[in-house]
């Protein structure tokens, strides 16, 4: 009996050592080919800009080419479908966003995927507050002036978003519900397309992340009225918050991160997270993100997962405060 027990313990130890060796080999083997980061929106938006900012340095860390592919449409769901159609080996990743994972589950009755079952959290890249931008020809300089102007012209002003059910859409709906103004939502397939029409004046305003819009404000083509977050941004201290304008509890802060498909090997996920965290800690990258009004994060998979659960609940409460209903 003692010999049999010893052999059992020995076999368990050998099996455990084998698993550890296999995991080590998997970590060493990944990546074995170029890595793709899928962005669910058209070029020129904040997610696209951030993905392309980190891709070259991530490629150096991984020792493989890192390509950014835009798969715009359906509020990011087309990119999710492309991710889930690819092998779950870590070589195809998703630039996951607030709209796709935290907002749409509350607004779409029949989601084409289950965020909690089909995706795996890898790391949060940034926190990204929105700024309320208006076309420079619109005769308003503050949020209070915008609200008064819109009240005198019900249904005449419109606001752009990077897609129905995205954070920029919800921020506009929050402004409507909190102030009682009547402005019309126009959805695009990404920030780049939306911004083009705001710049031309075909659309009056947009809630956008500074990284993709402040260049136009500095050039005098847009006017930054307020930060839709809990505090002013260090990069733009002169721009007040929406709450400073008297609109209480207006904090639709968004985020971007990296997700992988279910069943992606843990060793690959850990390697990707580790390399992205290194990139975000590089002084040049961190400085660029902060200058663009973004906050680098680089969280662990476990911490990002917990954040996603809480953030989905937060946005559910935001949606309850608007007139939006699931469709």
TrEMBL record:
The keyword Signal applies. CDD domains: PBP2_Bug_TTT. InterPro entries: BUG (IPR005064), Bug_dom1 (IPR042100). It holds the Pfam family TctC. Residues 1-26 form the signal peptide. The keyword Ribosomal protein does not apply. Keywords: Signal. PANTHER family: BLR1237 PROTEIN (PTHR42928:SF5), TRICARBOXYLATE-BINDING PROTEIN (PTHR42928). This is Uncharacterized protein UPF0065. It comes from Verminephrobacter eiseniae (strain EF01-2).
């Amino acid at each position: 009996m003692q010999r049999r027990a010893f052999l059992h313990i020995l076999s368990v130890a050998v099996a455990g050592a084998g698993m550890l060796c296999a995991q080590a080999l998997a970590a060493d083997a990944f990546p074995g080919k170029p890595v793709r980061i899928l962005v669910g929106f058209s070029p020129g938006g904040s997610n696209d800009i951030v993905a392309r900012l980190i891709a070259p340095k991530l490629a150096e860390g991984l020792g493989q080419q890192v390509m950014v592919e835009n798969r715009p449409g359906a509020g990011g769901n087309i990119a999710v479908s492309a991710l889930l159609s690819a092998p779950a080996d870590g070589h195809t990743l998703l630039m996951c966003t607030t709209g796709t994972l935290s907002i749409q589950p509350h607004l779409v009755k029949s989601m084409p995927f289950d965020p909690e079952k089909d995706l795996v959290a890898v790391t949060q890249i940034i926190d990204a507050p929105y700024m309320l931008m208006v076309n420079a020809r619109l005769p308003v300089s503050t949020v209070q002036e915008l609200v008064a102007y819109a009240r005198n012209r019900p249904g005449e002003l419109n606001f752009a978003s990077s897609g129905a059910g995205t954070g920029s859409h919800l921020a506009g709906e929050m402004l409507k519900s909190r102030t009682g103004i009547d402005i019309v939502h126009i959805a695009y397939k990404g920030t780049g397309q939306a911004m083009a029409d705001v710049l031309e004046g075909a659309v009056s305003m947009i809630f956008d992340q500074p990284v993709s819009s402040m260049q136009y404000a500095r050039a005098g083509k847009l006017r930054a009225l307020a930060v839709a977050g809990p505090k002013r941004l260090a990069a733009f201290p002169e721009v007040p918050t929406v709450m400073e304008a008297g609109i209480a509890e207006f904090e639709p802060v968004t985020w971007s991160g990296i997700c992988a498909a279910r069943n992606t090997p843990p060793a690959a996920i850990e390697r990707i997270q580790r390399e992205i965290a290194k990139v975000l800690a590089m002084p040049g990258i961190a400085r660029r993100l902060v200058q663009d009004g973004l906050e680098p994060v680089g969280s662990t998979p476990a911490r990002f997962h917990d954040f996603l659960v809480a953030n989905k609940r937060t946005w559910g409460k935001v949606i309850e405060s608007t007139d939006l209903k699931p469709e």
